[in-house]
Write a structure and sequence with these properties.
23% of the residues lie in helices and 23% in strands. The protein is α/β, with parallel strands linked by helices. The protein has three domains: 292 residues, Aminopeptidase (3-Layer(aba) Sandwich); 182 residues, Glucose Oxidase, domain 1; 220 residues, Class I glutamine amidotransferase (GATase) domain (Rossmann fold, 3-Layer(aba) Sandwich). It has an eight-stranded mixed beta sheet with strand order 1-9-11-10-12-15-13-14, sandwiched between helices. Helix 2 packs across helix 8 and helix 8 packs across helix 14. The protein is globular and about 85 Å long. 56% of the residues are buried.
């Protein structure tokens, strides 16, 4: 789950839908993203008015009664057993693919839904990197006793290839064969900072460091930073490192949270050579007479077998199910993410994934066809930046624009002792940042009242995969269970709710199974939105113009319309519908017919070359780019009166304003721009603000200090910079125009405050 600091809006009384028509109040100005700091009171029956009027209410009641926790937990047990201790269902791994296989096989058993036309689509896409674990085991010795156990292996940093590649056991990104590393050595126990400090200047090159995970747990506020502690351990040059965790449900104690999934402090430090990094749980060692962390000192020897390949780029998978409705109205999308971090992922988001499966099972068992078309989406790679849902918006643009709304289930938590929690509906909608303005949130709150489910309502732009729909003006809600006290704790839900830790097991779900059932019923209610309510509340305003984002040569799904929050909001409020052409498709002139604005993101291949990072060569080398034919299509579009926006980036961007690895493809845009007299020439600026002159008015243009790619352009077209070092230009071409941005960050969320928004408004004439 991706959470930010929140403001929780006051809950208002919901209107009786049987009596009056619900009206959506659309905002005509900029989208509102309130500060998230206040809380509301839980909803109750007294706080909702009236019941949902549904022609098929009896079907709704039958479905609610048929929802089975027992059946769901059985499926969850199977899901969380996949790829045990080998990365589990990590993004882009074989475990994730096996999980999709399991869901697909279960769906194939739903004969009645299949007879009604249910279809299943499996969609593959590339993600930045994945750690494929071939072997990860340890043999521990206490006296004459030995025990062999499978061990977790942190995947490494999620965003930087040099930090991720350290987890490759053979030290080569080109080799995906099994090449196990074997270490057999005396164990040196490091339970605390004092012991670690006393070991400084020691050499453990022939020994195995057995380290209490709390030393590197980034969820805890300690005297020695977890990063520094990890560096001190690496300075000892151990032959292998075994981290051990111990279950705790107490605030302030480490319980093995793999924050960032890379092994705590180890995910942000670099080291030389190959060092096996593994993690075990104290609870696995009872055979050795060990039941608590202090007894780990009795372990005298460890044999380690470790074999991991870092794959870049990796292949991830979405599974999309369509259940035809009987009325043919606009579809509703229910979603969850199938991948997990370095953990079994029962709470996050096995719970959401099994709820989707149970919804399909209930409809099949009860032979209920929803009124409206229903889509179920199991997304891959949520944990590395909403990769699956953003790819979905890129590849299903027409469906996305037709959606009634999206309900995500992510995620259930099992809060630490004495931490109050409640079901939360985190909604996001550009033109609806208030309860009374969002129909889907209103519907679910009303259903929560009927079902006697206390719930909070908050506005949150990027709670989970549902946030990828926001840029398309789709009402969306994430159903989660969380403790608000966790926001006072560094690490947030990952710490306070047993997410991203080895104890995220089915047992945690059983502890909160009543909550699990309530979340499931709320999600299931999304399949029963009455048609009269749909027609009254979800009526969109007229679409006046069409915008098309050309992702043809931009493989990173986060560098797309789904992540361009501010630009998308401005376009929506100006009457545009946002469409996307996905990566890998060939552009033809017919694709641009009827398009008022074409947006071209930077060329970007996820593949990292040896030139970019010394010592690392491509696993599957490729270098895609715009063709001369496509360049001709784009030129003709602008020349014949179209508006074209082309932007570059020196780095790969991910969600907010952070940029990561170097974009080796930045020059490839010149295939398009040379025809307009524009050539990208140099990366990096060091400038953060520039003056921009547009139609005789002065604006402040904010740039990132390193991400700008300078370009040359006709002097009369330059709006910021010079003809030799331009950062912003508007080139007249025939009866059209080309807007060139040297820094993609100009249109990213909140970057540069309101100044850049005014620049874009002036350029687009909105």
């Amino acid at each position: 789950m991706k959470s930010k600091k929140r403001i929780i809006f006051a809950i208002i009384a919901l209107l009786a839908l049987a009596v009056i028509v619900f009206v959506i109040i659309r905002l005509t100005g900029q989208s509102k993203t309130p500060a998230l700091s206040e809380t509301t009171s839980p909803a109750s029956n007294s706080e909702t008015t009236g019941a949902i009027q549904n022609d098929n209410e009896s079907e709704y009641q039958r479905a609610m009664e048929a929802f089975s926790v027992e059946r769901s937990l059985d499926f969850l047990t199977r899901l969380t057993s996949i790829n045990e201790h080998k990365g589990w269902r990590g993004a882009g791994t074989s475990g994730e693919s096996q999980a999709v296989d399991l869901v697909e096989s279960e769906l194939d058993k739903l004969e009645w839904l299949k007879s009604q036309g249910m279809t299943v689509e499996r969609e593959s896409f590339k993600v930045f990197a994945a750690s494929q674990v071939h072997a990860s085991s340890v043999v521990l010795s206490v006296g004459e006793k030995t025990l062999e156990i499978q061990a977790d292996t942190p995947r490494g940093n999620r965003d930087y290839i040099n930090l991720t590649a350290q987890m490759d056991s053979d030290g080569s990104l080109t080799d995906t064969d099994e090449n196990p590393v074997h270490v057999d050595g005396e164990v040196v126990w490091i339970p605390d900072h004092e012991t670690l400090a006393n070991l400084q200047n020691s050499n453990l090159s022939d020994k195995v460091a057995l380290v209490n995970y709390l030393l590197v747990d980034t969820s805890l506020d300690m005297a020695i930073e977890p990063r520094d502690a990890a560096g001190m351990i690496l300075d000892l040059k151990p032959a292998a490192i075994i981290l051990y965790t111990e279950f705790s449900n107490i605030n302030g104690e480490s319980h093995g949270t793999f924050s960032g999934d890379g092994g705590g402090g180890f995910q942000v430090v670099e080291w030389e050579g190959t060092i096996p990094l593994m993690a075990i749980q104290v609870e696995e060692l009872e055979v050795l007479g060990i039941s608590e962390g202090d007894q780990m000192q009795s372990i005298t020897n460890a044999e380690v077998t470790w074999d991991v390949d870092v794959i870049n780029p990796a292949t991830s998978t979405n599974l999309i199910v369509h259940i035809p409705g009987k009325e043919g109205s606009r579809p509703i999308l229910l979603s969850a993410h199938i991948d997990s971090p370095n953990s079994p992922g029962a709470l996050d988001d096995g719970a959401g994934s099994t709820i989707l499966m149970e919804i399909a099972t209930v409809l099949n068992e009860q032979q209920i066809q929803p009124d409206t078309d229903l889509y179920l989406a199991w997304y891959g790679s949520e944990e590395i930046g909403l990769g699956g849902s953003m790819n979905f918006t890129n590849t299903h643009s027409a469906l996305v624009n037709d959606l009634l709304g999206n309900i995500q289930v992510d995620c259930l938590t099992s809060p630490l002792d004495d931490m109050p929690a409640t079901i939360t509906l985190a909604f996001s909608h550009y033109v609806s940042s208030q309860l009374e303005e969002d129909p889907l949130a209103s519907y679910l709150m009303n259903r929560a009242g009927e079902l006697d489910i206390p719930a909070y309502l908050i506005y949150e732009q990027m709670a989970s995969d549902n946030g990828s729909l926001t840029a398309f003006n789709v009402s969306n809600v994430d159903i989660i269970y969380e403790s608000y006290e966790m926001y006072e704790i560094f690490g947030g839900p990952w710490y306070a709710g047993h997410l991203h830790d080895p104890y995220d097991t089915v047992e945690r779900v059983v502890e909160v199974q009543d909550i699990y059932k309530s979340m499931g019923k709320l999600a299931l209610s999304g399949a029963f939105i009455p048609l009269d309510f749909q027609q009254a509340a979800f009526e969109d305003g007229p679409v006046q113009k069409q915008a098309l984002f050309l992702m043809n040569q931009t493989e990173a799904s986060q560098m797309s319309a789904a992540a361009f929050f501010d630009l998308s909001a401005d376009l929506i409020n100006a009457g545009y519908e946002i469409n996307v052409m996905p990566y890998g498709e060939e552009l033809e002139s017919s694709d641009l017919e009827g398009i008022d604005l074409v947006v071209v993101p930077p060329v970007y291949d996820l593949q990292i070359s040896e030139e970019t990072y010394a010592g690392y060569t491509p696993v599957n080398g490729y270098d895609a780019g715009w063709t001369e034919s496509e360049a001709g299509v784009i030129y003709d579009y602008a020349h014949n009166g179209g508006t074209l926006m082309i932007m570059n980036s020196a780095f790969r961007l991910k969600l907010g304003e952070a940029f990561y690895d170097f974009n080796e493809d930045w020059q490839d845009l010149n295939v398009l721009t040379d025809a307009f007299g524009v050539t990208f020439t140099e990366q990096g600026t060091g400038r953060e603000q520039m003056n921009a002159a547009i139609d005789g008015k002065e604006y402040i243009l904010s740039l990132s200090s390193e991400n700008t790619v300078f370009f040359t352009a006709p002097a009369e077209s330059v709006l910021a910079g010079t003809a030799d070092e331009a950062s912003l230009a508007e080139v007249a071409v025939g009866s059209g125009r080309v807007i060139v941005l040297g820094d993609l960050m100009v249109i990213r969320t909140a970057y540069g405050g309101t100044g850049n928004g005014k620049v874009l408004e002036a350029l687009l004439g909105e």
